[in-house]
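Um, can you check?
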Amino acid sequence: MEGIQEPVPRPLHVQLRRAVLDHATTEHRHRFAPLIHVGSPGGPEEVFAVASGERLDQALRTDVVAALVRRVRRPGVVPMIWLTRPGGFELQDLDALWLAAARAATAEAGIGLTLVVVTRHGWVDPRSGVRREWKRLRAR
């Protein structure tokens, strides 16, 4: 089975919680452009904003993810990919499009894929459906 599986390892849980907390505390608008992040939540990361109305084909999305992976890749560290967007946890077309691009880019780079969709209230792995959500997330 692909994706994050239960039980979620503690270090991964901490990183994903950080991604949700960072998103919830920095994005206050109800409508905003989705962002694709590559790197480590709370650490080095590269971000690409999907401009409103911008149509990216699959090849261009894959090139974007590949470029972001190359920028943050360090020996011995596999970067994580997360998509921040408005809405709930249900799978959206945008999630599937970026998942396909991330699969292709990480396969080309020869690295494993960890990808989640992050909202203000939690995260979900679109491949496995594993998710975590919080009603009132606070910094510890």
